[in-house]
Amino acid sequence: MRNRMIAGNWKMNETFSEGVVLAEGLAKELEGGTGSVDVVVCPPAVDLKGVSEVIDQKGAPFALGAQNVYWEEKGAYTGETAPSMLTSVGATYCIIGHSERRGYFGETDEDVNRKAKALMAHGIVPISCCGESLEVREAGRQVEFVVDQIKKDTAGLTIDDSAKYVVAYEPIWAIGTGKTATADDAQEVCGAIRRTLAEVFGQETADGIRILYGGSAKPDNVAGFLEREDVDGALVGGASLKADSFAAMVKAAM
C-alpha cells in the first residue's frame, strides 16, 4: 500500500523570514497530524535552514525538501549545492528535473539521472519530474514522450526501497497557466509511467513508487486526481504558498 504524498514547491518565493512564517503557519494548520499522508515542503535554498528549524522546534508533521542539487560532492561549481549540503540542513527530499529547470536552464534527462544517483547515494529521496509540452500533447505523443523521459531519468538506478524514489508527472502546459489536465489525462500518463517503472525495476518495486500529479493542482481539484489508481498525491506550486490552502490539500488526501 502506497502512502499518499503532498509536496509543496515554493519555487522562487518567500524570503528567509517569510519562509519561517509560512512554515510556522503550516505547522499550526497541520498540528492534528497528517494521518498516513507524507507531506514535504520544498522552499528556496536560502530558506532551507529556517524551515528546518521550524520543523524541529514545532515538531511539524512535514519533511524538508530542496528544489535542486548538483551531482558533484564539492568543488569549483559556483552557485551549486551538493547533496551533503542539503543533508546538513535536514533536507530528506529534493525536486529534480522540473520543467522550469529543463526549459530555462537547459537541464537534460542525463543531468536528471546524475542528480538522482547523487541524491540517493546520500539518502535523499528524489522527486523526479517529467511531463510534456502542449505541442507534444496536441500531437497525441504524451505517453511516448514521458515514457522516454522515465527510461532516461532512471537509467542505471538501483532502488532497494520503493519509498526512496518519487516521480512527479507535470504536464508543462498546465503549470502556472490555470489549465489543468483532467483526472483521466493524469491517469493515462501516470499508468504508463508505472508500467515503464515495472519494466525497469520489476513490478513489485514499481507498485511501491509514488507517482504525483502536478500542474495547477488546487484544494478544489486534488480529490479527483487522488481517485485515480496510479495517482498517489500532488506536487503543488502556487497553492503551497498559503498555509491554509496547502493544508486543505493535505487533508483532502487523508
TrEMBL record:
Gene3D superfamilies reported for this sequence: Aldolase class I
GO biological process, one term: glycerol catabolic process
Compartments where found: Cytoplasm
CDD domains linked to this entry: TIM
Entry GO MF terms: triose-phosphate isomerase activity
Catalyzed reactions: D-glyceraldehyde 3-phosphate = dihydroxyacetone phosphate
Record-listed substrate binding positions: 9-11, 176, 216, 237-238
Keyword Cytoplasm: yes
Active site positions: 98, 170
Coiled coil residues, start to end: none
UniProt subunit comment: Homodimer.
GO cellular component labels: cytosol
InterPro entries: Aldolase_TIM (IPR013785), TIM_sf (IPR035990), TrioseP_Isoase_bac/euk (IPR022896), Triosephosphate_isomerase (IPR000652), Triosephosphate_isomerase_AS (IPR020861)
Family to which the UniProt record says this protein belongs: Belongs to the triosephosphate isomerase family.
Function, in words: Involved in the gluconeogenesis. Catalyzes stereospecifically the conversion of dihydroxyacetone phosphate (DHAP) to D-glyceraldehyde-3-phosphate (G3P).
Enzyme Commission number(s) of this protein: 5.3.1.1
Metabolic or biological pathway: Carbohydrate biosynthesis; gluconeogenesis; Carbohydrate degradation; glycolysis; D-glyceraldehyde 3-phosphate from glycerone phosphate: step 1/1
Protein name according to UniProt: Triosephosphate isomerase
Keywords, in A-Z order: Cytoplasm, Gluconeogenesis, Glycolysis, Isomerase
A family per Pfam: TIM
